[in-house]
Design brief:
Layout lengths: L5 H9 L3 E5 L5 H10 L9 E6 L6 H7 L8 H12 L2 E6 L2 H12 L5 E4 L5 H10 L9 E9 L11 H6 L5 E5 L4 E4 L6 E11 L1
Parallel strand pairs: 1-2, 1-4, 2-3, 4-5
Antiparallel strand pairs: 5-8, 6-8, 7-8
Helix pairs in contact: 1-2, 5-6
C-alpha cells in the first residue's frame, strides 16, 4: 500500500524512537517503522508499543470494525519484532477502548509517533484518539489511517474522516497526505481514495 510510505519516512525525518501503534495486524508497518528508527539509533533506545485484539479477534469484530484480516497472536507478534529488530517491544492484548486509555494514563511520557489504525468504526477511532491524549505532546506526530474520500460500499460511514473533520484548526495542524490507495467498487466509476492523515498539536 503506497500510503504507508509516510510512516518510515516520518520516523527518519523526526528521529522517532517511542512509537505507539493501535492495530498491529501482521507487524508489517511496525517492522518498517522500527527499521527506519534503526538507521539513526541503536535498538536499546527504540521502544515500540503495539495494541491489538490478537487472539480475541473474531468474525463479529471483523464485520463491525471492517477488519478483513486476522492479526498475529500476541506471542507471535512479540517474537517476530523482537527477533527481527532487537528493539524494546511491548504488545498489549485487548479492546483498545480499554487498553489504550489505561496505558496512556500511566505511561508518564510523550510518544514520538502514534499510528491509529485499529477498528475502523467511527466510535472506535474517536475512542482511540481520546485515549492517547495523555501521551500526545507538542512534538508528537499522530497518523490516522483510512481517511476515505468518495467512499463507496464497505467504506461508507467508516474511517477517520468524521473525527478529522471535527478537529479544531486552531488546536491542531491537520494534513491529509496526498499519496493514497484506490479501491474500486462494483461500478468502475466508484473509486474510494484511502489516505493517511498527519495531526500535530499547535
Amino acid at each position: 500500500m503506497v500510503r504507508y510510505q509516510y510512516l518510515p519516512s516520518a520516523v527518519k525525518q523526526y528521529q522517532c524512537k517511542i512509537i505507539v501503534e493501535i492495530g498491529v495486524l501482521r507487524c508489517k508497518r511496525a517492522r518498517r517503522m522500527i527499521e527506519a528508527a534503526l538507521t539513526f539509533s541503536s535498538p536499546e533506545y527504540i521502544f515500540y508499543y503495539g495494541f491489538d485484539l490478537f487472539e480475541l479477534w473474531n468474525s463479529s469484530v471483523a464485520i463491525k470494525e471492517q477488519s478483513t484480516q486476522a492479526p498475529l497472536s500476541q506471542a507471535k507478534a512479540q517474537t517476530v519484532l523482537t527477533n527481527l529488530t532487537g528493539a524494546n517491544i511491548t504488545m498489549v492484548k485487548g479492546d483498545s477502548k480499554k487498553t489504550v486509555s489505561k496505558f496512556a494514563a500511566h505511561f508518564g511520557k510523550y510518544a514520538d509517533l502514534i499510528f491509529i489504525d485499529g477498528g475502523h468504526s467511527v466510535p472506535t477511532i474517536a475512542s482511540d484518539w481520546k485515549s492517547v491524549q495523555p501521551i500526545v505532546g507538542l512534538n508528537t506526530l499522530v497518523f490516522f489511517d483510512d481517511y476515505y474520500i468518495n467512499p463507496h460500499g464497505r467504506f461508507k460511514n467508516k474511517g477517520c474522516k468524521t473525527l478529522i473533520d471535527s478537529l479544531s484548526q486552531s488546536a491542531f495542524a491537520v494534513e491529509v497526505l496526498p499519496q493514497c490507495d484506490l479501491f474500486k467498487g462494483d461500478d468502475p466509476n466508484d473509486v474510494t481514495e484511502d489516505h493517511l492523515v498527519k495531526v500535530r498539536k499547535r
